[in-house]
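EI: anyone free to look at a 134-residue chain?
SC: sure, send it
EI:
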Amino acid sequence: MAQRDLLLREIEKIGILLRGILGQLKKKKDETESIASDNIENANKVLQEEIGFDLEYFITLDEASVSEYLMKFEGMTTMNTELLAEVIYKSSNEKKHLQKALLLLELCEKQDQTFSMERINKMKEIKNIIQLCV
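SC: here you go
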């Protein structure tokens, strides 16, 4: 029972952390005070300090290593993986970041038992932006 409680706390902690980062990104976007590299650096700093997640390293991983890296974090559920994709997507318009956000959403689509129209639409949106980057 204690193990289950610990896991639930980790899931909740990661979710709160990612929603907090998203809130900061939306606030900065509204104020137009920051550039994309600062967003990624700030998100990386918070994630490293709080849960040991290295966002900059994660962005460099190949497709096969992404799932393996995510499994190191007990609270990285499908919902939290979608939040991470949103953080990466909102942080930068660089093609490599957008591709990583898309990859995360595709992983969620494979793993989740529930159909999500919102996820499908977000994937289409990111694919369109990636095509414009080419």
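EI: The chain has one domain: 2-133.
SC: 👍
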